[in-house]
Amino acid sequence: MTGAELRALDCWGPEGGLLSESELDWLMDYVSKRWFHHVLEVGHYTGLSTLALIMGARLGKLTTVDHHKGDKWVSGSSAATFLCNIAKAPPSKPLPDVIIAPYDTAMLDWLKPSLLFWDADHGHEQVRAMCDAAQRKFIRAVVFDDADFEHAKIGAEVLRAHGWRDVSPPLYRGPQDKLDPKTMTLGAFER
After folding, report:
1. Is pTM beyond 0.90 here?
2. What is the mean pLDDT of residues 48-52?
3. Which of the listed residues 43, 55, 75, 110 has the most CB atoms within 10 Å of its CB?
4. Among the listed residues 37, 63, 27, the one whose alpha carbon sits nearest the alpha carbon of residue 140
5. How far apart are CA 148 and CA 112, in angstroms?
6. Residue 51 CB burial class (10 angstroms; 0-12, 13-18, ≥19)
7. Hey, which CATH number is domain 3-190, 1.10.150.130, 3.40.50.150, 3.40.50.2300, 3.30.70.1560?
8. pLDDT digit string, tens, across residues 31-47
9. Is the dihedral of CA 12, 69, 51, 116 positive or negative?
10. What is the pLDDT of residue 70?
C-alpha cells in the first residue's frame, strides 16, 4: 500500500490524516529496510501513522500510546475510531499493543523500544522525550514529525549532541501542509 492509498481511505477525520503521502511513503520504506524488534509510537491520533508502521512489515512488535485528548495542534480524537481504522490492516499484519493513556517516560524503560516514533506534543514534552531517548542505549532510531517546529529542532540538537546521525529526508512544508502530497517534515536520527 502506498501513502496515497493510505490517505485515500475515508476514515481519517476532517484533517484527512496528519501525515502527507510522501511522509507515509518514507516512513513505510524506512521501517521496511531495517529491523526494529520493538517500535513505540507516541501519538497515534486516528491511526494513519500506525497503519503506515504496520504496513512497513519488518516490525517485531509495535506499541502505540495516545491519550486522545488532543493538544494545542490537534483536537481530541476517538479511541474507538482509532481502533476501527487500524483494523483496516491486512490480516497478515499483526495489530499493535494499544495504550490509551498519557505518555510517560517510564514506558521507555518498560518497553525498551529500538525505534521511537514521536508524533505527539511538539512542545517541551517532545524535548524531554528526545533527551530521554538519547540516553537509552536500546533505542537505535528516533523519527518525529514536524521537524521544522521549534521544539523539534531543540530535540534534534539534543540527539546530535549525543552523537546521533541525522538521516532525515529533506524538509519541505507544502503550501497546504499535509494535504500537499509532497510535504515532508519528518526528522530521523540513528545511533
Report:
1. yes
2. 92
3. 43
4. 37
5. 27
6. buried
7. 3.40.50.150
8. 999 999 999 999 988 88
9. positive
10. 63
